[in-house]
Specification:
The protein is mostly helical. The protein has 18 helices and no strands. It has 2 domains: 101 residues, no CATH class; 203 residues, no CATH class.
Amino acid sequence: MKENFKHLASKVAIPAIDMSEVANEVISETSSLLNKEGEIKQGYGMASGIFSLCLAILCFLGVIAFHFPEYLTTPELRDVYNTADIRQIMFFALLFSGGWSFSNILLNRKRNINLAAFFFVMITVALGGSRVHVGDYNHENTYYLGLDWFILDLLGSSIIFVLLEKMFPLYKGQTLFRKAWQNDLIHFGFNHLLIGFMLLVVNFTIHYGFGWLVKHSLQEFIQSIWFFPQLLLCIFIADFVEYWTHRSYHEVPFLWKYHSIHHSSEVMDWLAGSRLHILEIIVTRVLILGALYVMGFSKNVLDMYILIVGFQSVFNHSNVHLNWGPLRYILVTPDFHHWHHSSDDIAIDKNYAAHFAFIDYIFGSAVDSEKQFPDKYGVVGNYVPHGFLKQQLFPFKLQK
């Protein structure tokens, strides 16, 4: 029997598997996702493979953040979320990513991308997975990266706004992985990871630059106002400062070099609003939060304002269209803000407001067009370079 088996085995050619070649193929195909300039066409197993890979990478980063919370988590955020809830989310994300990628591997659907996803699932589980031990947590005198803020915001934003874009699309044919999504995702990650540095700079500048303007009598009066009208006043003051700051970015050539980065996106969706120069982020936050600091709004009002501005800043860039009726003259909506990003002649330097559209109507900067939607987006002349680093360095480049 053994001799017969050996004889049979000798007749069957079993191909040798070069693991290094397989690994190179996986790395090459996966890394190409971040290098392609055009949109990624969704094919058989492509969308599920990318989703699995993204979930697996987020889980991997989450485990790393849990191992080193002192350096990779945000103190303000750690006080809000529950570690047990995060473990549950991570468990189901790993289960979903691992199951979906393994199924695609068995069915030979986009094998290399799904192999990369399954690899990240396995290494995440090996590092502790959803049961990972949380390391020592002490943020005093420690510089940190907001890795947890990046993970949670990317996960939450993608779920909420991708669903909205699929349910109420402005451009129905626009794909999820559209042109230059990779560039905007890098902007998104960079802005979130450096939240600790930016908060440090913003808080220092506000306290030492605006402290002399503080009048306790004014702050006591503001805090005595009932919550809802105080919130509306807070949003109006913030938007009034934002309006003139934003308008300055457009009308002062030196400032436009920084702001043009934000306008360089030729496709609008929830991720497009992340394309910003770091100096613009810091200056804008200093001016807006500085004004709110001087006014002395209550903490619960400021917390609600942060939630609203966080939602609206993403929502107004999203590929969403709804029938707003008369509200379109009061509130800034995606329809309103899309015109601001248009390169149509009629839309240049218009629609500056971030929250209340009536501010633009008051100051005569609202778009007046019979068309419902713009024809094209981006910077006139398309002179802003592609790529995160090139865009961050672009304002400092000497013009010929």
